[in-house]
Amino acid sequence: MTSPPTGEDAGPRPHGPGGPPAAARDLPHDPPGGARVTPPSTPQDAPAPGPARRAARLLPGLVVGAVTLALPAVLDDSALTVYIFLGLAAMVTVGVSLLMGYAGQVSLGQGAFYAVGGYTAGILAVRGGPPIAGLLAAPVVAAAFAVVVGVPLLRLRGHHLAFATLAMQLIVLSLAGRLAITGGDIGLQAIPPFGWGSFELTGAVGYAYLTWGGVALVMLVTRNVIVSRPGRALRALATSETAAASSGVPVGRYKLVVFALSAAFAGLAGGIYAYYTGYVAPSSFPVLLSIEYIVMAVVGGLGTVWGAVVGAAAITLLVQALNLIGTAPGMPSYAPSVLSYAVYAVVLITVVLFLPRGLFPAAVARLRRAPRP
Amino acid sequence: MRELLTYVVNGLAVGCGFALIAAGLVAVHRVTGVVNFAQGMFAVVAGLSASWLLGTGLPHGLSEGAAVLVAAVAGLLTGLLAIGRRGTTPQSALIVTLGVGVLAYAVEIVVWGDQPRSFPGLPGSVSVAGVGVQSQHLLVIAATAVTFALLTTFFGRTYLGKALTACASNPYAARVIGIDVTRMGLLAFVLGGLLGGVAGVLVTPLRPISFDTDVTLIVNGFAAAVFGSLGRAGLALVGALLLGLAESLAAGYGYAAYQLEIALGLMLVIMVVQSTRRTSVLEEPA
Which segments of A75-189 does DSSP mark as H helices, in order? Predict the structure, then answer.
């Protein structure tokens, strides 16, 4: 993960007026110039040296932010739907990326937390609870659920954990299809729209802002986790749990917290989904959904916050474009699903085999290398 | 008492299907360290091909045999993608096989459509101890017994089988004495494809199969394989039979709706119990 240019940034350059960068300050036993002890694994956490460079670094973020805010005003309704689903997928994918890339845990059951969030918001809403409570409860309940299942499951590693989380999702779906409170196979219908007081959020534009507000929140939380001391501990335990534990990292607790955090992200996305579509059923959360999130996270580059969003955007837009082709007149009725399956598969296999760092980090590394003399 | 026996035979037959899938998982995992998520897909491909070949008028036996070969080819292709490229870690290979499983969805829908398919198995029933038992159930049990016997002979008595075992126990030493480890890995994938294919053609007459049945098959097969810690086919067989019995008895005594939960719950409990007995040091890559 250390491309030559990033290494130069972190190395001998004198620190700014604020003393050693924040990343080095809270490590008590670091030698002077300790920034090198934690080699930046992503472009974001490289220390920003001067104000000019800092501005240059912030600029792309500001542009992206402005475009994100401006888009809902110009998109038409069908494009807005795609935009909202893209945001929801990005929210979940940031969590998956954090869990897989930083904590090194594979979850094939992220769709289950999405479902728990959706059902939580849905159940509260159809029973007349205030929508804002539903939206807050969705991530909280999903995280609590993750803690409950995480205590036994996170003892497992690698492929065992992957299958255990997949099993968890199958159990959740099967139960949701049976219980009365979740509406059985038919699911919950006519969930009232989101709102507060007498105001009701009915237009897609409002949901777009709500969704992308959520994405911003999720990204901010993740970024802060990554650059904090626990973030470095997570990176350590992803490499070797034994080594991390012997240097004092509370391995079990940290894994559980990240698992719960990624579940909370998925739960929030699920809650917004329930309010936006007004409908949740077991068939809204197929196993393939969890695989989709893995594809998005892997494509964007595991363990990068922006990469997760890029991956979610790339895959959502690609599948959307193929959907247009698949539903074109003259195509067989199965074309859309076949095309999307094929795309997920081909993209996933190609990226894992040939771009293991992901699309976003690879592109960033190339961009940085280019302008240097 | 009478129905208990029926449930038991039914459960054993279903369990045999899982056992064959599990055996394929074990074969691949032992030799390559990869958990092959596409293992359930081999069974689906074989089941669908067999039903299609029978539809074209090919006789029984020939159709099933050809279907198993198709599954073996699918196994080889999966292996080429998963371990063909040097330096693919088992974790990445798991994700690649996940991708292969999804890719197979696309192919299966194009070739065979998205509706469940089945084909008639062995007709009629036999009376065992005064209880009527479907012949197909007995066929499944017998075929599984033969397959496991062949597997044991293959691994224990043939040069190729011993070479595979050598790769499983120490890939480096195997390479030193001139065994091509990658080729053996591919062979393990072909074996996995064959075993999955046998499972597919045997089970399809019992339960109609469609392109997305592979998730249920792989999860149950993995549960059984976990019983043998993913390395011992004999214990996996025991696990699969227990799993099949548990599901069948649950279904027979009125908990049909909870079949899946029972199987998955069992798997989770076994995995968590196993994990408490192992230290993490043993599992970390050197």
Answer: 77-97, 110-126, 131-153, 158-176
- All residues of chain B having their beta carbon less than 8 Å from the beta carbon of residue A97 are none
Q: Is the pLDDT of residue A48 over 50?
A: no
Chain B: residue whose CA lies nearest to A348 = B99
* Contact residues, chain B, for A155 at CB < 8 Å: 272, 275-276
Q: Regarding beta strands A199-200 and B125-128, do their DSSP bridges make them parallel or antiparallel, or are they unpaired?
A: unpaired
The answer as to CATH 1.20.120 being correct for domain B2-115+135-277 is: no
User: Distance (Å, rounded) from C-alpha A24 to C-alpha A30?
Assistant: 7
Per DSSP, A98 falls in state I
B224 confidence band (pLDDT: 50, 70, 90): confident
Pick the residue with more confidence: A32 or A366? Answer: A366
Residue A29 makes CB contacts below 8 A (sequence gap 6+) with none
A345 with B100: Cβ contact below 8 A: yes
User: Who among A160, A294, A334 is closest to B109 (CB)?
Assistant: A334
pLDDT at A13 over 70: no
Cα B87 to the chain's mean position, in Å? 26
pLDDT of amino acid B63: 87
Determine, for residues A338 and B109 on separate chains, whether the beta-carbon distance falls below 8 Å.
yes
* Mutant choice from A251, A348, A353 vs B, greatest count of B C-beta within 10 A: A353
Looking at this predicted complex, what is its ipTM? 0.84
What is the pTM for the complete model shown?
0.79
| Closest by CA position to A142, among listed A107, A110, A117, A176 | A117
Q: Select the residue of B35, B110, B264 nearest A338 (Cβ to Cβ).
A: B110
* Res. A370 pLDDT band, cuts 50 70 90: low
Domain positions in chain A: 75-287
